[in-house]
């Protein structure tokens, strides 16, 4: 199992229509084959500069690679992520 997580801060104003549109588009990633336990999360701690997180699981490395290469994921990254995310940190986990 691989848990893919990313925390990020958007360029958009908090509560804006642009912010909501981005989060809705990000939620559509859950429909990509292999994605399990998708969650879009809002940060509540002041301990870091990120405001949102995405978390999802994959059964194995092949499922994760399929997600990374999937045309909908590639399109989201090119058309939305690169344009609208101010900063982020990505962490991928396997059970220890």
Category from helices, strands and their pairing: alpha+beta
Largest sheet: 4 strands, antiparallel
Distance between the termini: 11 Å
Q: Mean pLDDT across all residues, rounded?
A: 97
The side-by-side strand order for the widest beta sheet comes to: 2-3-1-4
Low-confidence stretches: none
- Total DSSP helices: 3
Indicate the overall shape.
Answer: globular
Kindly provide the radius of gyration, computed on alpha-carbon positions and rounded to a whole number of angstroms: 13 Å
Helix content: 25-40%
N-to-C series of helices and strands = EHEEHHE
Strand proportion, as a percent range, falls in 25-35%
Kindly state the number of beta strands: 4
Question: Any overview of this molecule?
Answer:
The protein is an alpha+beta fold. It is 35% helix and 34% strand. The protein contains three helices and four strands, in the order βαββααβ. The chain has a four-stranded antiparallel beta sheet with strand order 2-3-1-4. The radius of gyration is 13 Å and the shape is globular.
The gist of it:
With 96 residues, this protein is α+β, with helices and mostly antiparallel strands. The chain has three helices and four strands. Helix content is 35%, strand content 34%.
């Amino acid at each position: 199992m691989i848990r893919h997580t990313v925390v990020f801060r958007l360029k958009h104003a908090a509560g804006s229509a642009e912010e909501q549109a981005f989060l809705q588009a990000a939620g559509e990633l859950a429909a990509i084959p292999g994605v399990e336990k998708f969650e879009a999360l809002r940060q509540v701690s002041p301990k870091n500069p990120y405001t949102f997180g995405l978390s999802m699981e994959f059964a194995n490395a092949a499922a994760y690679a399929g997600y990374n290469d999937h045309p909908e994921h590639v399109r989201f990254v090119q058309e939305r992520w690169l344009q609208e995310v101010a900063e982020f940190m990505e962490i991928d986990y396997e059970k220890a």
